[in-house]
Amino acid sequence: MRKPKKLINDRNAVAREQFEGFMAAMSRDLESISNHTCAIRKAPLNGKVAVFTGGGAGHEPMYGGYVGEGLADAVAIGDVFAAPTPDAIFETALALNPENGVVFIYGNYAGDNMNFDIAAELLEDEGVRTHTIRVNDDVISAPIDNSKERRGIAGALFVLKVAGAAAARGDSFEQVVEVGEHALRSTSSIGVALGPCAIPRNNGFNFQIPDDEIEIGMGLHGEPGVGKSKLSSADDVVFEVMTKLEHEAELKEGDEVALLINNLGASTQMELLIANRAVHHYLSEKNVSVVDNLIGGYCTSLEMSGWSISLLKLDEQLKSLYQAPCQSFALRKSL
Protein backbone atom coordinates (compact mmCIF):
# COMPACT_ATOMS: atom_id res chain seq x y z
CA MET A 1 0.00 0.00 0.00
CA ARG A 2 1.29 3.46 -0.93
CA LYS A 3 2.70 5.51 1.95
CA PRO A 4 2.44 9.31 2.18
CA LYS A 5 5.57 11.24 1.29
CA LYS A 6 6.30 14.66 2.83
CA LEU A 7 9.45 16.76 2.84
CA ILE A 8 9.49 17.72 6.55
CA ASN A 9 11.80 17.51 9.56
CA ASP A 10 10.39 16.09 12.78
CA ARG A 11 6.92 14.70 12.00
CA ASN A 12 5.84 15.65 15.55
CA ALA A 13 6.89 19.28 15.10
CA VAL A 14 5.22 20.24 11.82
CA ALA A 15 2.61 22.54 13.40
CA ARG A 16 5.28 24.50 15.24
CA GLU A 17 7.64 24.68 12.27
CA GLN A 18 4.98 25.75 9.78
CA PHE A 19 3.93 28.47 12.24
CA GLU A 20 7.51 29.67 12.52
CA GLY A 21 7.71 29.86 8.72
CA PHE A 22 4.44 31.78 8.64
CA MET A 23 5.68 34.24 11.24
CA ALA A 24 8.95 34.71 9.36
CA ALA A 25 6.89 35.88 6.40
CA MET A 26 4.61 38.10 8.51
CA SER A 27 6.97 39.43 11.20
CA ARG A 28 6.47 43.03 10.10
CA ASP A 29 2.72 42.87 10.72
CA LEU A 30 2.16 40.15 13.33
CA GLU A 31 3.52 39.35 16.78
CA SER A 32 3.71 35.80 18.13
CA ILE A 33 2.53 34.95 21.63
CA SER A 34 5.22 33.33 23.78
CA ASN A 35 5.15 29.52 24.07
CA HIS A 36 2.14 29.21 21.76
CA THR A 37 1.48 28.89 18.02
CA CYS A 38 -0.60 32.05 18.24
CA ALA A 39 -0.28 35.55 16.86
CA ILE A 40 -1.86 38.99 17.05
CA ARG A 41 -1.68 42.01 14.79
CA LYS A 42 0.94 44.55 15.81
CA ALA A 43 -1.46 47.37 14.96
CA PRO A 44 -3.34 48.32 18.15
CA LEU A 45 -7.09 47.84 18.26
CA ASN A 46 -7.66 51.53 19.07
CA GLY A 47 -11.10 50.76 20.47
CA LYS A 48 -12.31 48.47 17.70
CA VAL A 49 -13.95 45.11 18.37
CA ALA A 50 -11.43 42.25 18.19
CA VAL A 51 -12.02 39.44 15.69
CA PHE A 52 -10.30 36.19 16.73
CA THR A 53 -10.03 33.01 14.68
CA GLY A 54 -8.28 29.67 15.03
CA GLY A 55 -8.27 25.90 14.75
CA GLY A 56 -5.98 23.03 13.98
CA ALA A 57 -2.93 23.17 11.72
CA GLY A 58 -3.13 21.37 8.40
CA HIS A 59 -5.67 23.73 6.80
CA GLU A 60 -3.22 26.40 5.70
CA PRO A 61 -3.68 29.24 4.93
CA MET A 62 -6.73 28.91 7.18
CA TYR A 63 -6.55 30.26 9.88
CA GLY A 64 -3.43 32.37 10.27
CA GLY A 65 -3.53 33.49 6.67
CA TYR A 66 -6.55 35.68 7.43
CA VAL A 67 -5.07 37.75 10.25
CA GLY A 68 -4.54 41.26 9.00
CA GLU A 69 -6.05 44.62 8.22
CA GLY A 70 -9.78 44.32 7.60
CA LEU A 71 -9.85 40.67 8.69
CA ALA A 72 -9.00 38.91 11.96
CA ASP A 73 -6.90 40.47 14.71
CA ALA A 74 -5.64 37.25 16.27
CA VAL A 75 -5.24 33.54 15.66
CA ALA A 76 -4.63 30.47 17.81
CA ILE A 77 -3.40 27.36 16.02
CA GLY A 78 -3.40 23.84 17.45
CA ASP A 79 -1.52 20.74 16.40
CA VAL A 80 -2.42 19.12 13.07
CA PHE A 81 -6.21 18.66 12.99
CA ALA A 82 -6.35 19.46 16.74
CA ALA A 83 -7.84 22.42 18.57
CA PRO A 84 -5.67 25.11 20.19
CA THR A 85 -5.60 24.89 23.97
CA PRO A 86 -7.81 27.12 26.15
CA ASP A 87 -4.83 28.81 27.79
CA ALA A 88 -3.34 29.65 24.37
CA ILE A 89 -6.63 31.22 23.26
CA PHE A 90 -7.05 33.06 26.58
CA GLU A 91 -3.53 34.49 26.68
CA THR A 92 -3.68 35.56 23.03
CA ALA A 93 -6.99 37.33 23.52
CA LEU A 94 -5.69 39.21 26.56
CA ALA A 95 -2.62 40.30 24.60
CA LEU A 96 -4.96 42.23 22.30
CA ASN A 97 -6.19 44.43 25.17
CA PRO A 98 -9.74 43.97 23.86
CA GLU A 99 -11.64 46.61 25.78
CA ASN A 100 -14.60 46.46 23.38
CA GLY A 101 -14.91 42.70 23.30
CA VAL A 102 -13.82 39.68 21.27
CA VAL A 103 -15.79 37.92 18.52
CA PHE A 104 -14.56 34.35 18.01
CA ILE A 105 -15.00 32.88 14.51
CA TYR A 106 -13.96 29.27 13.89
CA GLY A 107 -15.12 25.96 12.43
CA ASN A 108 -17.81 23.95 14.19
CA TYR A 109 -15.82 21.01 15.58
CA ALA A 110 -16.12 19.50 19.06
CA GLY A 111 -12.55 20.17 20.22
CA ASP A 112 -12.56 23.77 19.02
CA ASN A 113 -15.99 24.36 20.55
CA MET A 114 -14.89 23.05 23.94
CA ASN A 115 -11.56 24.88 24.12
CA PHE A 116 -12.79 28.21 22.79
CA ASP A 117 -15.77 28.03 25.19
CA ILE A 118 -13.43 27.50 28.14
CA ALA A 119 -11.30 30.44 27.02
CA ALA A 120 -14.42 32.59 26.59
CA GLU A 121 -15.49 31.81 30.16
CA LEU A 122 -12.04 32.77 31.44
CA LEU A 123 -12.18 36.03 29.49
CA GLU A 124 -15.65 36.82 30.81
CA ASP A 125 -14.25 36.34 34.33
CA GLU A 126 -11.67 38.99 33.43
CA GLY A 127 -14.41 41.35 32.31
CA VAL A 128 -13.89 40.80 28.58
CA ARG A 129 -17.07 40.52 26.57
CA THR A 130 -17.16 37.65 24.05
CA HIS A 131 -19.38 36.17 21.36
CA THR A 132 -18.81 33.00 19.36
CA ILE A 133 -19.70 32.40 15.71
CA ARG A 134 -19.31 28.69 14.95
CA VAL A 135 -19.01 28.39 11.21
CA ASN A 136 -21.23 25.53 9.97
CA ASP A 137 -21.32 26.14 6.23
CA ASP A 138 -20.98 22.48 5.15
CA VAL A 139 -24.57 21.87 4.09
CA ILE A 140 -24.05 18.16 3.44
CA SER A 141 -22.97 17.32 6.98
CA ALA A 142 -26.41 17.64 8.61
CA PRO A 143 -29.98 18.47 7.51
CA ILE A 144 -31.16 22.06 7.60
CA ASP A 145 -33.34 21.45 10.67
CA ASN A 146 -30.21 20.35 12.53
CA SER A 147 -27.84 22.96 11.11
CA LYS A 148 -26.07 23.48 14.45
CA GLU A 149 -24.44 20.09 13.89
CA ARG A 150 -23.04 21.04 10.50
CA ARG A 151 -19.27 21.24 10.05
CA GLY A 152 -17.28 24.30 9.09
CA ILE A 153 -15.23 24.31 5.89
CA ALA A 154 -13.93 26.98 3.50
CA GLY A 155 -16.92 29.30 3.96
CA ALA A 156 -15.27 30.54 7.15
CA LEU A 157 -13.29 32.87 4.90
CA PHE A 158 -16.46 34.73 3.92
CA VAL A 159 -17.57 35.12 7.54
CA LEU A 160 -14.14 36.40 8.59
CA LYS A 161 -14.06 38.85 5.69
CA VAL A 162 -17.43 40.37 6.50
CA ALA A 163 -17.01 40.51 10.29
CA GLY A 164 -13.46 41.80 9.96
CA ALA A 165 -14.57 44.62 7.66
CA ALA A 166 -17.35 45.60 10.05
CA ALA A 167 -14.93 45.71 12.97
CA ALA A 168 -12.38 47.66 10.94
CA ARG A 169 -14.85 50.43 10.13
CA GLY A 170 -15.67 50.83 13.83
CA ASP A 171 -18.96 48.98 14.18
CA SER A 172 -20.13 48.25 17.71
CA PHE A 173 -19.83 44.82 19.32
CA GLU A 174 -23.51 44.14 18.65
CA GLN A 175 -23.19 45.21 15.02
CA VAL A 176 -20.14 43.03 14.35
CA VAL A 177 -21.92 40.06 15.91
CA GLU A 178 -25.10 40.70 13.93
CA VAL A 179 -23.41 41.03 10.53
CA GLY A 180 -21.08 38.09 11.22
CA GLU A 181 -24.06 35.87 11.99
CA HIS A 182 -25.81 37.23 8.89
CA ALA A 183 -22.79 36.33 6.76
CA LEU A 184 -22.80 32.82 8.20
CA ARG A 185 -26.50 32.33 7.41
CA SER A 186 -25.76 33.52 3.87
CA THR A 187 -22.85 31.12 3.30
CA SER A 188 -23.13 27.55 2.04
CA SER A 189 -20.44 25.07 0.99
CA ILE A 190 -19.95 21.51 -0.26
CA GLY A 191 -16.70 19.62 -0.69
CA VAL A 192 -15.76 16.77 -3.02
CA ALA A 193 -12.87 14.42 -2.16
CA LEU A 194 -10.99 12.31 -4.70
CA GLY A 195 -8.10 11.16 -2.55
CA PRO A 196 -6.99 11.00 1.11
CA CYS A 197 -4.76 13.06 3.35
CA ALA A 198 -2.21 11.93 5.95
CA ILE A 199 -1.43 13.41 9.36
CA PRO A 200 2.38 13.49 9.46
CA ARG A 201 2.80 11.79 12.83
CA ASN A 202 0.63 8.86 11.78
CA ASN A 203 2.65 8.12 8.64
CA GLY A 204 -0.47 6.78 6.96
CA PHE A 205 -3.56 8.02 5.16
CA ASN A 206 -6.65 8.97 7.17
CA PHE A 207 -9.01 7.13 4.84
CA GLN A 208 -9.11 5.48 1.44
CA ILE A 209 -11.08 6.26 -1.70
CA PRO A 210 -10.85 3.80 -4.60
CA ASP A 211 -9.25 5.23 -7.73
CA ASP A 212 -12.54 5.13 -9.65
CA GLU A 213 -14.66 6.79 -6.92
CA ILE A 214 -15.26 10.17 -5.30
CA GLU A 215 -16.99 11.20 -2.08
CA ILE A 216 -19.27 14.23 -2.00
CA GLY A 217 -19.51 16.01 1.32
CA MET A 218 -16.37 14.67 2.98
CA GLY A 219 -15.16 16.87 5.83
CA LEU A 220 -11.79 18.56 6.20
CA HIS A 221 -10.48 15.79 8.45
CA GLY A 222 -11.89 12.87 6.49
CA GLU A 223 -15.34 12.87 8.09
CA PRO A 224 -17.75 10.91 5.89
CA GLY A 225 -19.94 12.66 3.36
CA VAL A 226 -23.10 11.35 1.76
CA GLY A 227 -21.34 8.31 0.37
CA LYS A 228 -18.98 7.31 -2.40
CA SER A 229 -19.97 7.24 -6.04
CA LYS A 230 -18.25 6.44 -9.31
CA LEU A 231 -15.97 9.10 -10.69
CA SER A 232 -17.79 10.97 -13.44
CA SER A 233 -17.23 14.17 -15.40
CA ALA A 234 -16.46 17.49 -13.72
CA ASP A 235 -19.61 18.99 -15.20
CA ASP A 236 -21.76 16.23 -13.70
CA VAL A 237 -20.21 16.59 -10.25
CA VAL A 238 -20.52 20.38 -10.29
CA PHE A 239 -24.16 20.09 -11.37
CA GLU A 240 -24.90 17.78 -8.43
CA VAL A 241 -23.14 20.11 -5.98
CA MET A 242 -24.68 23.29 -7.34
CA THR A 243 -28.18 21.84 -7.31
CA LYS A 244 -27.80 21.31 -3.56
CA LEU A 245 -26.20 24.73 -2.99
CA GLU A 246 -28.88 26.52 -5.02
CA HIS A 247 -31.59 24.94 -2.90
CA GLU A 248 -29.75 25.63 0.36
CA ALA A 249 -28.99 29.26 -0.50
CA GLU A 250 -32.49 29.79 -1.90
CA LEU A 251 -31.02 31.46 -4.97
CA LYS A 252 -33.37 33.26 -7.29
CA GLU A 253 -33.08 35.19 -10.52
CA GLY A 254 -31.18 38.45 -10.07
CA ASP A 255 -29.25 37.38 -6.97
CA GLU A 256 -25.56 38.18 -6.54
CA VAL A 257 -22.96 35.90 -4.95
CA ALA A 258 -19.31 35.72 -4.06
CA LEU A 259 -17.90 32.41 -5.27
CA LEU A 260 -14.99 30.40 -3.86
CA ILE A 261 -13.56 27.37 -5.66
CA ASN A 262 -11.27 26.01 -2.96
CA ASN A 263 -8.48 23.51 -3.45
CA LEU A 264 -8.52 20.92 -0.65
CA GLY A 265 -4.81 20.38 -1.16
CA ALA A 266 -3.69 18.27 -4.09
CA SER A 267 -5.98 19.21 -6.97
CA THR A 268 -4.50 21.06 -9.93
CA GLN A 269 -5.29 24.61 -10.99
CA MET A 270 -6.61 23.06 -14.19
CA GLU A 271 -9.25 21.07 -12.27
CA LEU A 272 -10.28 24.13 -10.26
CA LEU A 273 -10.72 26.22 -13.40
CA ILE A 274 -12.76 23.48 -15.09
CA ALA A 275 -15.01 23.36 -12.02
CA ASN A 276 -15.23 27.15 -12.03
CA ARG A 277 -16.31 27.08 -15.69
CA ALA A 278 -19.15 24.72 -14.85
CA VAL A 279 -20.27 26.78 -11.84
CA HIS A 280 -20.41 29.94 -13.96
CA HIS A 281 -22.47 28.15 -16.62
CA TYR A 282 -24.88 26.92 -13.94
CA LEU A 283 -25.29 30.33 -12.29
CA SER A 284 -25.58 32.13 -15.61
CA GLU A 285 -28.49 29.91 -16.59
CA LYS A 286 -30.18 30.89 -13.31
CA ASN A 287 -29.41 34.58 -13.96
CA VAL A 288 -27.33 34.76 -10.78
CA SER A 289 -24.35 37.14 -10.96
CA VAL A 290 -20.88 36.37 -9.59
CA VAL A 291 -19.58 39.57 -7.99
CA ASP A 292 -16.24 38.10 -6.96
CA ASN A 293 -14.52 34.81 -7.77
CA LEU A 294 -11.76 33.30 -5.61
CA ILE A 295 -9.94 30.23 -6.94
CA GLY A 296 -7.15 28.41 -5.11
CA GLY A 297 -6.08 26.89 -1.82
CA TYR A 298 -7.89 28.97 0.80
CA CYS A 299 -8.78 26.19 3.28
CA THR A 300 -6.88 22.98 2.67
CA SER A 301 -6.73 19.54 4.21
CA LEU A 302 -3.06 18.65 3.90
CA GLU A 303 -2.74 16.74 0.60
CA MET A 304 -6.38 15.74 0.20
CA SER A 305 -7.32 15.70 -3.46
CA GLY A 306 -10.54 17.48 -4.32
CA TRP A 307 -12.22 20.84 -4.07
CA SER A 308 -15.06 22.63 -2.35
CA ILE A 309 -17.48 25.23 -3.62
CA SER A 310 -18.65 28.03 -1.33
CA LEU A 311 -21.27 30.67 -2.06
CA LEU A 312 -21.90 33.87 -0.13
CA LYS A 313 -25.32 35.19 -1.12
CA LEU A 314 -24.97 38.96 -1.13
CA ASP A 315 -27.27 41.76 -0.17
CA GLU A 316 -26.18 45.41 -0.15
CA GLN A 317 -24.82 45.21 3.41
CA LEU A 318 -22.81 42.04 2.83
CA LYS A 319 -21.63 43.22 -0.59
CA SER A 320 -20.22 46.45 0.82
CA LEU A 321 -18.36 44.68 3.63
CA TYR A 322 -17.11 41.87 1.41
CA GLN A 323 -15.68 44.35 -1.08
CA ALA A 324 -13.98 46.47 1.60
CA PRO A 325 -10.16 46.50 1.42
CA CYS A 326 -8.12 44.02 3.42
CA GLN A 327 -4.56 42.75 3.58
CA SER A 328 -3.23 39.53 5.04
CA PHE A 329 -0.94 36.64 4.15
CA ALA A 330 -3.58 34.89 2.05
CA LEU A 331 -6.16 37.52 1.08
CA ARG A 332 -5.75 41.03 -0.27
CA LYS A 333 -8.42 43.36 -1.57
CA SER A 334 -8.03 46.97 -2.62
CA LEU A 335 -10.58 49.63 -3.45
Automatic annotation (TrEMBL):
Pfam family membership, one: Dak1
Domain of life of the native organism: Bacteria
Keyword list, A-Z: Kinase, Transferase
EC numbers for this chain: 2.7.1.29
GO molecular function: glycerone kinase activity
Record-annotated DhaK domain positions: 10-331
Residue stretches spanning the membrane: none
InterPro entries (alphabetical): DhaK_dom, Dihydroxyacetone_Kinase
Statement: the UniProt record of this protein carries the keyword Transferase: yes
EC class name: transferase
Protein name (database record): Dihydroxyacetone kinase dihydroxyacetone binding subunit
